[in-house]
Amino acid sequence: MSIHPTALVETGAVVPKSAKIGPYCTVGADVVLGERCELVSHVVLDGHTRLGAGCRVYSFAAVGVAPQDLKYAGEPTSVEIGEETVIRECVTVSRGTTGGGGMTRIGAHCLIMAYAHIGHDSSIGDYCILANGATLAGHVTVEEWATVGALCPVHQYCRIGQHAYVGGGTTITQDVLPYSLTSAKRETRAYGLNKVGLERRGFSREQVRALQHAYRLLLASKRNTSQALEALRAEADACEEVQYLLRFVETSERGVLK
Q: Most buried of the four, 98, 126, 196, 242, by CB within 10 Å?
């Protein structure tokens, strides 16, 4: 057993010899760790929390903490996590409530990325991914092999169907169809030149004018991108900044926002 001297493991916690507990971790009395579990550092495990074999929890994660539910009155509810699941930095997982079945579940072989939140009484199937900042309210169900993209809030009682992929920044207020690709509309576009920012950074009037001209051709003319690039390349006096803009557009592999 490897327990750093700064870690605090309360009497009653079950820690196998193959587990590793890093510096400044706290492990509550009702926590059960599976074989080969690792707590990297500064991890908080609280409540009736059980981790399957081979789980790894990274720094500043808080698992099994009291639910963010004003009705919760300290009842002995729990969290259960399947084997080989990885929980990254600053993830929070709330334990269940008596009104929601008393259990928050995360399946096996899941990846819960940094700053994700899993609310009370949620259930996540095996092989799921929650990307950075994904937020599950209470009572959410995520079925096996589903992916919830970065910065996605999911409303209470919603279900994410199996093998679904939810694109980043999508707000979920109803159930997501299994096998689907679901994403919010993306209407992001370039509105013009960052003139004030460039002036503050010392760009000359001539440089700013040249870039404004280039942006008018790219964004405001009736030319498509190829035609705008051709027109700009034909201008012999293009400054270094405009030439860089041209190279940036020409070498884009995903296309540019216009």
A: 242
pLDDT band at 64 (very low <50, low <70, confident <90, very high): very high
Identified catalytic residue from 120, 125, 133, 149: 120
Whether 121 is catalytic = yes
Q: Break the chain into its structural domains and give their ranges.
A: 1-187, 195-250
Single-letter amino acid, residue 18: S
Whether pLDDT at 143 is above 80: yes
Point out the least confidently predicted range of 8-22, 97-111, 148-162, 225-239: 225-239
- Give residues with Cβ within 8 angstroms of 253, minimum separation 6: none
User: pLDDT-based confidence at 186, cuts 50/70/90?
Assistant: confident
> Is 28 one of the annotated active-site residues of the chain?
no
Catalytic residue chosen out of the listed positions 133, 138, 149, 161: 138
Can you count the helices (H) and strands (E) in the chain?
Answer: 4, 25
